[in-house]
Specification:
This protein has two helices and 13 strands. It starts with 8 loop residues before the first strand and ends in a 15-residue tail after the last strand. The strands form four sheets. Strands 11-12-7-13 form a four-stranded antiparallel β-sheet, with helices on one face. The chain has a three-stranded antiparallel β-sheet with strand order 1-6-5. The mean pLDDT is 92. 20% of the residues lie in helices and 39% in strands. It has two domains: 9-80, Outer Surface Protein A, domain 3 (Alpha-Beta Complex); 83-163, Outer Surface Protein A, domain 3 (Alpha-Beta Complex), CATH 3.90.930. It has helices spanning 59-80, 137-150; strands at residues 9-10, 16-20, 23-28, 31-36, 41-45, 49-54, 83-90, 94-99, 102-107, 113-115, 121-126, 129-134, 160-163.
Length: 178
Amino acid sequence: MSRIGILPVPIPSGVEVSFDGGVCRVKGPKGELSENIHSLVSVTIEADVVTVSRANNQKLARSLHGLTRTLIANMIQGVTEGYRKSVEFMGSGITPDLQGKTLIIEAGFSHKVPMEPLEGTSFTRDGNIVHVDGISKQQVGQQAALIRRVRPPSGYRAQGIKYTDEQPKYKAGKARTA
């Protein structure tokens, strides 16, 4: 049995979960999310609990069991609390700027890089840190990865764009021989 998949997902008050036609919909105070569910996995909704079960013990069904349960739990958390991922701009000449909803990134290139938020995400700026907020964990992570991809952290000095919880590995400089 899947250790993750057999755990029931509690439904907090103010959240509606429905499952019909292979689509699981979660509606809460922050918005609405939906996810297609594979036919090898079935979802049952009782009073305040969602349980996920699989049709058989094939490898695909086993792998989808825990995944489906986690996706539903992430949707419930997203519509109640939301998700936030933060990226930090390090080094001179690498700066963020917000113009309306658009993030303008100066990353040491000959041009500025404009970045529109993905659907369901938004930017907030706090000095040299940009926070990506949204209700979909996948969308928030994707948007943060797109920002980081503009100028990943350098391996030799503290320059670039990194996640705030990331510890870049710096390479050793030239060894001095006497």
